[in-house]
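User: C-alpha cells in, sequence out, please.
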C-alpha cells in the first residue's frame, strides 16, 4: 500500500513538504487541505500589491491546485478545513467551508502547517468595518476594495513591526497620509532602540506620523471613513482605513484539541526531526516552537524561510532520510522607503533578559569604496561574547549593501564563527561593490580591539551616567563638523591637534571620546591611553548618539 500523507495548510511549510514528498516518493498518496481559497501564495508580497509595486495580483499566486495536480500529482483541496484529529484511529475530519460537506480521511503520517493567525488586540471597536489584517489574499483584496471604493485618504497602522512598516510604506506610496501607532517606544523591536532610530528617522522624513508609547485605547464611530482612533494620551486620529499589524500567534487549536504537547512559548512542541509528541504527526512553520539558534531556548519565530526548510526536513524524515532542524536565528530584513533594516540572532534586550554576557560595537562604514560614486553609510551593530569572541547577533540599517552584509553575518552566526573570523573573512572587493576592508572585516576588527584590550568602549545610553560621574567628553571631529550638532558640554580637540593639546585634558578624570562614526575617536583613544589617560571610545560615536536622540 502506498504511504498516505495528509497535510493541513497549503502555503510555505505545507507546500514545501508536499512537493518534496512527491520528489522522494512517486507513489505516495499526498493530500493537502487548505482552509482558504488559495494555496502556495506569496503572503510576504501582499503589502506590495497595495502600493502597486506588484501590479499584477496574479503574480502572488505561485501555484494553483490544478497545476499542482498536473505537475506533482498532489490532491490539493482548497476551501477545506480540517476540524479535528483522531490520533487513535489515525484519521482527520475535514469540512468544505463553502458547501459544508464533511469527510473522514485516513493517514499514515499527518503534517500540521496551519501557520499563525493575526493577533487582534482587545481594543474596543477594533473589529469595525474598514479594519483589516494582512495575512491572506482575501485580506489584501478587502483592503484594496475598501480604499478604492471609499477613496481613502488617511490610514492608521496599528503596530510598528515588519508587516506594519511594509503596509505603511505601501499605503504612503498609494498616496494616503499614514500614521503608525505603536505601544512600544520604538518600531521594529527585534532591533535595539538606537538602530530602530534610523528607521524612525526615515519614516518621519517621508511624512509618516509616529505615535510611539501611545497605543490606541479605543476606536470610535466616524461620520466618514473607518473610525476615529483615540490614543492613550487623548489624541484623536481619524482614519479612512485601519491595518491591524500587532503580531501573530501560532494557530494551534487543532493541535491542542488533539492533545499534542504545546511548548512554553505557545507553539506546538517538536523534536529536531520536527515530530510532535505523536510520532505520526509532524509540524512546521509559524505553528511550532523552535530552538533559538543563539540562546538555545524555546521560541516562536514566524519566518517564511525557516518554514520552507522545515517542510522539506519533514518530507525527508517521512521518506526515511534522517534529517534534523538546527534552530532558528531570526534572520529578517525589511525595506522602509530608502533604507533597509536587517537583523540576525540576539539583540541586547534578549541577552540581558537571559543574563548572557555580551559586548557590542557600532560602526558606520560605507557600502563600497568611498571614492567610487554612490557609496552609502551603513549603521552596523555587532554583539559578541566578550570572552570567546563568539558572534551573538547583528543589526544593520542603510540605503545600500545591508542585505549583503546581514547574509554574511547570518552565515557566520550559523557556523559559530567569532569576531576573529569576521576580521579574516575574504570577501568580494572591487570599488563598485565593497572596500578592501569590508564592513564585515571592520566589524570584526573593531570587536577585536575591545577583546584585546586596545580600547574600552562606551555605549550611547551610558553617556548621561558617565557625564554625571565626572567624565569629560572630548570631540575629535573638525570644528566645522560641530555645526551639525554636539554632545552638550563636549570639548573640541580635533584629532590632528590632539598630541599638541594633551595638557588641556585632566588625567584624574575619565575621558569619553567621540568623532562622527568611531574610527578617529579610536585613534584618539590609542594616543591618550599611551600617554596615561583613562579613556573610553563612544562606539558608533556621534552618528549613533544623534540618531538615538532624534528618535526619542
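Assistant: Sequence out:
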Amino acid at each position: 500500500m502506498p504511504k498516505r500523507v495528509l497535510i493541513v495548510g497549503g502555503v510555505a511549510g505545507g507546500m514545501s513538504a508536499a512537493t518534496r514528498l512527491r520528489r522522494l516518493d512517486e507513489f505516495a498518496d499526498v493530500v493537502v487541505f487548505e482552509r482558504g481559497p488559495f494555496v502556495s501564495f506569496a503572503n510576504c508580497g501582499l503589502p506590495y500589491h497595495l502600493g502597486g509595486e506588484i501590479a499584477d495580483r496574479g503574480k502572488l499566486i505561485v501555484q494553483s491546485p490544478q497545476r499542482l495536480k498536473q505537475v506533482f500529482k498532489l490532491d490539493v483541496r482548497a476551501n477545506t478545513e480540517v476540524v479535528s484529529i483522531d490520533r487513535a484511529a489515525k484519521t482527520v475530519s475535514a469540512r468544505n467551508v463553502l458547501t459544508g460537506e464533511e469527510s473522514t480521511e485516513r493517514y499514515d503520517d499527518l503534517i500540521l502547517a496551519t501557520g499563525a493567525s493575526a493577533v487582534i488586540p482587545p481594543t474596543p471597536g477594533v473589529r469595525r468595518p474598514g479594519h483589516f489584517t494582512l495575512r491572506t489574499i482575501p485580506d489584501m483584496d478587502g483592503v484594496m476594495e475598501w480604499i478604492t471604493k471609499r477613496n481613502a485618504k488617511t490610514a492608521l497602522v496599528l503596530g510598528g513591526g515588519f508587516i506594519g512598516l511594509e503596509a505603511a510604506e505601501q499605503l504612503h506610496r498609494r498616496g494616503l497620509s499614514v500614521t503608525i501607532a505603536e505601544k512600544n517606544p520604538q518600531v521594529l523591536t527585534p532591533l535595539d532602540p538606537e538602530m530602530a532610530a534610523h528607521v524612525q528617522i526615515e519614516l518621519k522624513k517621508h511624512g509618516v506620523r509616529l505615535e510611539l508609547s501611545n497605543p490606541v485605547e479605543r476606536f470610535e464611530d466616524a461620520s466618514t471613513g473607518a473610525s476615529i482612533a483615540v490614543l492613550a494620551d487623548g489624541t484623536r486620529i481619524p482614519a479612512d482605513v485601519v491595518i491591524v499589524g500587532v503580531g501573530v500567534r501560532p494557530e494551534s487549536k487543532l493541535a491542542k484539541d488533539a492533545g499534542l504537547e504545546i511548548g512554553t512559548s505557545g507553539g506546538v512542541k517538536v523534536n529536531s526531526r520536527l515530530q510532535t509528541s505523536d510520532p505520526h504527526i509532524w509540524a512546521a512553520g509559524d505553528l511550532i516552537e523552535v530552538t533559538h539558534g543563539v540562546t538555545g531556548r524555546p521560541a516562536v519565530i514566524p519566518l517564511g524561510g525557516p518554514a520552507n526548510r522545515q517542510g522539506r526536513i519533514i518530507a525527508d524524515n517521512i521518506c526515511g532520510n534522517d534529517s534534523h532542524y538546527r534552530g532558528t536565528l531570526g534572520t529578517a530584513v525589511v525595506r522602509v522607503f530608502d533604507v533597509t533594516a536587517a537583523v540576525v540572532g540576539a539583540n541586547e534586550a534578549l541577552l540581558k533578559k537571559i543574563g548572557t554576557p555580551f559586548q557590542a560595537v557600532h560602526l558606520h562604514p560605507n557600502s563600497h569604496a568611498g571614492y567610487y560614486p554612490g557609496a552609502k553609510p551603513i549603521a552596523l551593530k555587532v554583539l559578541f561574547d566578550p570572552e570567546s569572541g563568539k558572534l551573538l547577533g547583528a543589526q544593520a540599517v542603510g540605503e545600500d549593501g545591508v542585505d549583503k552584509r546581514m547574509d554574511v553575518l547570518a552565515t557566520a552566526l550559523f557556523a559559530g564563527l567569532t569576531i576573529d573570523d569576521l576580521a579574516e573573512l575574504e570577501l568580494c572587493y572591487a570599488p563598485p561593490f565593497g572596500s578592501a576592508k569590508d564592513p564585515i572585516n571592520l566589524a570584526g576588527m573593531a570587536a577585536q580591539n575591545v577583546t584585546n584590550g586596545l580600547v574600552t568602549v562606551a555605549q550611547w545610553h551610558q553617556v548621561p551616567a558617565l557625564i554625571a560621574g565626572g567624565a569629560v567628553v572630548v570631540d575629535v571631529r573638525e570644528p566645522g563638523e560641530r555645526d551639525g550638532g554636539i554632545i552638550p558640554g563636549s570639548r573640541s580637540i580635533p584629532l590632528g591637534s590632539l598630541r599638541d593639546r594633551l595638557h588641556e585634558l585632566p588625567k584624574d578624570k575619565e575621558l569619553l571620546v567621540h568623532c562622527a562614526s568611531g574610527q578617529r575617536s579610536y585613534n584618539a583613544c590609542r594616543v591618550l591611553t599611551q600617554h596615561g589617560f583613562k579613556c573610553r571610545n563612544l562606539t558608533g560615536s556621534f552618528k549613533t548618539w544623534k540618531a538615538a536622540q532624534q528618535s526619542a
